[in-house]
Write a structure and sequence with these properties.
The complex is a heterodimer of chains A (341) and B (325).
Chain A: H1 2-14, H2 18-34, E1 42-44, E2 47-49, H3 51-74, H4 82-99, H5 104-129, H6 133-152, E3 157-158, H7 162-169, E4 171-172, E5 175-176, H8 177-194, H9 198-207, H10 209-214, H11 219-245, E6 247-248, H12 257-267, H13 279-298, H14 307-321, H15 323-337
Antiparallel strand pairs in A: 1-2, 3-6, 4-5
Helix pairs in contact in A: 2-13, 3-8, 3-11, 3-12, 3-13, 4-5, 4-6, 4-11, 5-6, 5-11, 7-11, 9-11, 12-13
Chain B: H1 10-29, H2 36-45, H3 47-61, H4 69-85, H5 91-115, H6 120-138, E1 143-144, H7 148-155, E2 157-159, E3 165-167, H8 168-185, H9 188-198, H10 200-205, H11 210-236, E4 238-239, H12 247-257, H13 269-289, H14 294-315, H15 317-320
Antiparallel strand pairs in B: 1-4, 2-3
Amino acid sequence: MNSASSTFISRFLQSRIVWPLAGLALLLLFNLIFDRAFFEVTTRDGNFYGPMLTVMRLSVVVMLLAMGMTLVIATGGVDLSVGSVMAIVGTLVAFLAVKHHLGFPSLLGVAISVSLSIGAFNGVLISCVGIQPIVVTLIMMVLGRGVALNITGGSPLQVMDSGVLFLGKSFIMGVPVQIFLVLFVFAITVMLCRKTAIGLFVEAVGDNETASRLSGVNARGIKVLVYIFSAVCAALAALVSIGDAGSVDPDGLGQMLELDAITAVVVGGTVLTGGRFTLLGSLIGALLIQTLATTLIRQGMDSAYAPVPKALVILVVCLLQSQKFRAQIASLIGNFRKPTS
Amino acid sequence: MKQIFTRKNLPILATTFVLVLLFGTFSVLFDNFLSLRVVTDLFASNAHVGVVAIGMTFVILSGGIDLSVGSVVGFTTIFVATLVGKHEMHPALAILLALLVGSAFGAGMGIFIQVYQLPPFLVTLAGMFFARGMAFVVSKQSLEINHRFYSAVIDAGIPLTDKVILRAPACIFVAVFVVALVLAHFSRFGRNVYAVGGNAASSLLMGVPVGRTRIWIYTLSGFCAALGGVVFTFRTQAGNATNAFGLELDAIAAVVIGGTLLSGGVGYVAGTLMGVLIYGTILTGIRFYGNLDSSWQRMAIGALLLVFIVIQRLLTRAPAREHSH
């Protein structure tokens, strides 16, 4: 009995997705006790409103970024350019809609093709020229922000296109559209990763690139592919973000979101050194961070201090992934069990 | 002479070449560019980046990374300004306190990284959020620093010629550079840093105190970040919690342009100095060109960095292949 339960505990401690889920549950429990209004859902014109839905809506952008980032991190890389890709795509889309009256299908086409080429550029520099991912995407981050500012000369733009606004502001069956979008992207990504060999290849490249190449995996191709995917996810995130806001600020759009996405991925249980990944974990990670932020602000914390709890979450999650820390905790639990012996 | 042109020295030679090329190009393009004043200005206006980047060099040499430095700079500026402005503390004492806080903060991150074997990227990312948040906790409003001590420091400097003075920030930058040079290449600590970055497991087997070295490295980086913050206040005479936003990326870029490999174990402190100067030269060149708006500035920096990194990569391709995975 005792040994059975202790193996259960150790398995529980080993699982990737359990910790972010437990964190989320803890936060919800806190709100259940101290802030019942958090769970209130009201309907207006048949659409659902309430803090919970707001949290979900607000986390969609980071969720989209985190999905692309998950695959990039799984290959052992990192993509710091996603915030700037968002800025380029968002500004360009708003600009083309206002100045050239492009319709939504062509705007979508522009968004996808621009992000695709940026992602491919990143991927080729990383895998073929052999520059470190953090350097390439860092440069793209600076360069891309400049390009975004240059489209409008830095001034903000109104979002006019009804399709983009639909993505950010409308409801389907009472639920915000972007939640469906993120579920759709998630479903497709999971299918591509788990029903085809792509996910396996990504993990192989992240685990040991040389070994994967020697066993016939097109490591370079896989790497280019994940950076393209990450950039396309950023483009979708941009559409949702500007649709929601109704305007574009080329300087602010996507600023620092690359770090939020990385945080979500790591909190979700994917390890930065590459290898195995969990897409669901990243979604939960994004949700956890947003729930924490919203909870603290509802508790009256100044939003300027928000980075502090975020820092603590990252640190706690890191500690939970550390072998040594787990061993310390496990021995602590062991001591609790048999205090006399 | 033969010793200088080894494969190990290729990255730093490439960097030197790029700096000379860049400075030469601008000197040909613009009148008055090739002058002592431009050079001293280059040191003075990039002093805070330089000091931070030198600390970062040790971290990257050891195979780590420190994302917290920009936030620590921001925190230090508002911390010093609040102590001086609101609590009427003497600036010298406030600066000393800030340096202690910065070092302790770095040491704390180093302990987490070492004891629990956590990825430096994440621990220092947490540190970045934490320090920025704490900066806002100290004060959300920007605060001016008005004190006789500050005016004295700002007026101080080493006169190089009748007209050109090496200002205090530049002096600090140069001093930090010299100390770092000695520390990296002529001390046991420096040898340990290279050993840890080259291969932590084998250096542990060879008796290198890996854990202690690592903690000291992050302490040093924290100290340099705090000192960078102090230098920042000398320039602006004010503290602001939003200061030095994204500075960690400038510092990393300077280190990497300087030829230090992010994988650790390979690089020079002198390379970082050149990286900072390349960065500064690009900015100065853009300023000489005329009033380019910030979008062109960023595009120019990004594009030039990209070109130089690719050149450096192509020049150093052969030796680096052994390290690539």
